[in-house]
């Protein structure tokens, strides 16, 4: 893993996040019908994008851990400096975009000051200001834990323990929710936005930066084609599990989340496959995507701005939904990236605005 690959993965992940949100009117169960009779090619393709793309948010968390640990190679860790930099990076956009979205809600506009303050507090606590801001609450939790997690050394045993714990936690949450097992335990299990479900990804990213040679050696035990096949198998399992779960409980929305063991497998296999693109090529013969370093770096730098703005872009281009579930996804990605890159380029040199827009 290096900065170039990290930028590429951010660009891929942002595009898939845009498609996940844009595909919502067409995916399986979008209109309350969770029957295979409702399947057609458009629904199947949009559902595949919506579900197989679920590795993107865990991937962002991994890349965040990687970026923080990698930056320590050029700038030694200092707690107060870390708090200032990370807080300045994440809190202003989170506060501003949360308040902006709240201001347009009728319930907020009609409430008195006490009710408005209560809504602000609740929204900031759970990240419900907009349907993508929950991710920032996850990152905030990861940042808070970083000073402790960075002290956990990488060993084969620690990796095994973390892997077993993660799969066990996700499997427990999934089985309890789906099969209604251990009903006395269910109320005490956190939802999938809780830090317990995300810190293992974050820790994995930290280890990627600290022991790159170990992971490179492990990747070379299999060819890129094999890693790709493993990811394809994981994608098929994840999509099949989604259909099974949605039909079983009669709701696609309730089961199409990130807190599932198949999403863990999907995320890790994709990341290993992506890392093998670089590790199995000679240093003087880089993969084809590295020929576009300038573009990839620009997309990576503008990814946070694009993420913050893409929900508003999707609302803006709602009339384009007449193009259908495939055409609309293409328009959504192009429009979101175009506006994200434009805003990023405009606000980057402007103090204050560059912080608010994540530039």
Automatic annotation (TrEMBL):
Molecular function in Gene Ontology: O-acetyltransferase activity
InterPro entries assigned: Acyl_transf_3_dom
Gene Ontology terms describing biological process: enterobacterial common antigen biosynthetic process
Membrane-topology annotation of the record: Multi-pass membrane protein
Cellular compartment(s): Cell membrane
Family the entry assigns: Belongs to the acyltransferase 3 family.
Name of the protein this chain belongs to: Acyltransferase
Species, as recorded: Tumidithrix elongata BACA0141
């Amino acid at each position: 893993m290096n900065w170039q690959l990290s930028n590429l993965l951010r660009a891929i992940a942002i595009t898939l996040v845009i498609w996940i949100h844009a595909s919502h009117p067409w995916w399986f169960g979008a209109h309350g019908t969770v029957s295979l009779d409702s399947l057609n090619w458009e629904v199947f393709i949009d559902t595949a994008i919506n579900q197989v793309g679920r590795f993107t948010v865990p991937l962002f968390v991994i890349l965040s851990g990687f970026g923080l640990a990698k930056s320590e190679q050029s700038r030694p860790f200092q707690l107060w400096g870390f708090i200032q930099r990370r807080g300045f990076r994440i809190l202003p956009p989170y506060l501003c975009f949360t308040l902006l979205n709240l201001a347009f809600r009728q319930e907020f506009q009609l409430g008195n000051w006490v009710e408005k303050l209560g809504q602000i507090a609740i929204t900031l606590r759970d990240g419900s200001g907009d349907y993508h801001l929950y991710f920032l609450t996850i990152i905030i939790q990861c940042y808070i834990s970083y000073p402790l997690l960075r002290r956990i050394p990488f060993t084969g045993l620690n990796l095994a323990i973390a892997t077993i714990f993660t799969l066990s936690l996700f499997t427990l949450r999934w089985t309890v929710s789906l099969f209604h097992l251990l009903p006395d335990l269910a109320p005490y299990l956190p939802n999938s936005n809780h830090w317990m479900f995300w810190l293992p990804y974050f820790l994995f990213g930290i280890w990627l930066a600290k022991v790159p040679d170990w992971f490179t050696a492990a990747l070379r035990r299999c060819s890129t084609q094999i890693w790709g096949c493993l990811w394809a198998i994981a994608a098929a399992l994840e999509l099949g599990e989604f259909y099974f779960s949605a039909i079983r409980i009669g709701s696609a929305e309730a089961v199409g989340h990130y807190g599932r063991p198949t999403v863990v497998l999907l995320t890790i296999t994709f990341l290993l496959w992506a890392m093998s693109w670089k590790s199995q090529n000679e240093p003087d013969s880089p993969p084809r995507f590295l020929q576009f370093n300038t573009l990839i770096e620009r997309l990576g730098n503008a990814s946070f701005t694009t993420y913050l703005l893409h929900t508003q872009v999707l609302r803006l281009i709602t009339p384009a939904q007449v193009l259908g579930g495939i055409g609309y996804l293409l328009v959504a990605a192009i429009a979101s990236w175009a506006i994200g890159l434009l805003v990023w380029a405009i606000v980057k040199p402007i103090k204050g605005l560059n912080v608010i827009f994540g530039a």
